[in-house]
């Protein structure tokens, strides 16, 4: 029989104020109950497990020491904030986490006053928290503390370094907590990872230094300018003696650590000691992803978001996929390896997502030709551009929502020079439970205006393989291929690698009464919908797979413009500026005036839920497309 956990202490905590009423001696028990609750709930309702188990003690300590929500806590990424949600009045609703109309997957100011800033994309916490700290000082709120909690590889992001640079140059009292677990989703990479592993500073030394500086201030000997000069001199002296440069103190940011991130008592003690220190500070905390649950500790990448599992045995409950189509990412990964075997110029690039995008397949067989650059999307694109300039052929795989962070790099470092970089946008379209920060619905609209780009989306797995083959042929220039999260439609997904004529769509079905134009895998839903509509009405519906958003198949669109007065466009992207807009522009520019019904993502941020639930809400599931076709046929 499954053991029932009482959660007696958690039941008494409806806010951090209740937590602060407890003696420090009971905090380990609070952490234990939080760990039990998260494991229990996520075994039934999947979410981010490993990162949340690793941050429990840190979360408890932060809320215990700081006067939240008056004091501001800014979480980076936010997939480690389940304990935060439970402690801040959402314990009884935690069972709705990531479900339609339930708790948001990441901290959201729209959900709680304790959620101070939007989370979801890495590396923004330092910049946002610095802005809050400066604002507090400007309003005379000298008693308001601001804390940025950053970890899970986010320190490798360029925005984090931009924030650190500014922290060192603007008067502020910001506290940065570096939750160092040596992980992003896969293992962290790069020099910063190794640096953090080797960094050590004496806690006793920092206590003595703080005491001395307070006395010097009280005696009138020390002012702000002298303090900075002393810090610079002291840091130089310490670096010489230790034969190690501290990058944070090199930026005039006081450094404390390394502290055991699973000793809640020690965390409370250190946070109390440093919370009121003037000037920017960084507390380096070492944690273990998956802490307290054996399977998650042993395989942190797998247990980052493991899906359903048996919490007693640690066995993941994996659905039988025998006879089902593969994931699009798996087709990408296997096809990339196949192409790399044939073309020695091909290399792979991904920002911290080798497993998520299946580039680990290439990494395993050809480790010297695949590069995980860490959470650094802009760098990934420009790095790819540099390799392309020297004759290599990079396949740069970035989730669609994260490619937003590299927009200028695409324009400035790839498109202007017409470099042959293949930008593979995984997780394009609605992605489901991760919600608005992760939906890849903007890429068609934001990439369409960029000159020199080819933009394509495959109808199915065969088309994905052919587009990948086409993109690596000589002279193709910057080539964008977008495809969704989840499975395709073809069990027999392997096919010969054949060239597709760039800018050439396909007529999937003849018809006379209405034309349906689709782009990408959503065309499969449209095909089923129009078949139903024909059966129910007796009318004839044509179906065109546009294939390329750029360049458009002008011959095909002229054919549609001449022969149809009613058109339905369907896309898994925003309506404003997307494929439907491109069709309308073409019709207007060429003197056609059909009645066009555009289906896609409306002008709002779509919340979280299953992909099917969200597609239904947006009217781009089979039923929504069917209803639109019927309405157009009735006109």
UniProtKB/TrEMBL annotation:
Record-listed E.C. numbers: 2.2.1.7
Known pathway: Metabolic intermediate biosynthesis; 1-deoxy-D-xylulose 5-phosphate biosynthesis; 1-deoxy-D-xylulose 5-phosphate from D-glyceraldehyde 3-phosphate and pyruvate: step 1/1
Residues where thiamine diphosphate binds: 79, 120-122, 153-154, 181, 293, 377
Enzymatic reactions: D-glyceraldehyde 3-phosphate + pyruvate + H(+) = 1-deoxy-D-xylulose 5-phosphate + CO2
Pfam families on file: DXP_synthase_N, Transket_pyr, Transketolase_C
InterPro entries according to UniProt: Dxylulose-5-P_synthase, THDP-binding, Transketo_C/PFOR_II, Transketolase-like_Pyr-bd, Transketolase_BS, Transketolase_C
The protein's enzyme class: transferase
Binding site for Mg(2+): 152, 181
Domain Transketolase-like pyrimidine-binding stretches: 326-491
SUPFAM superfamilies (UniProt xref): Thiamin diphosphate-binding fold (THDP-binding), TK C-terminal domain-like
Entry's family note: Belongs to the transketolase family. DXPS subfamily.
Description of how the protein assembles with itself and partners: Homodimer.
HAMAP family: DXP_synth
Protein name as annotated: 1-deoxy-D-xylulose-5-phosphate synthase
Organism annotation: Bacteroides gallinaceum
Encoding gene (name): dxs
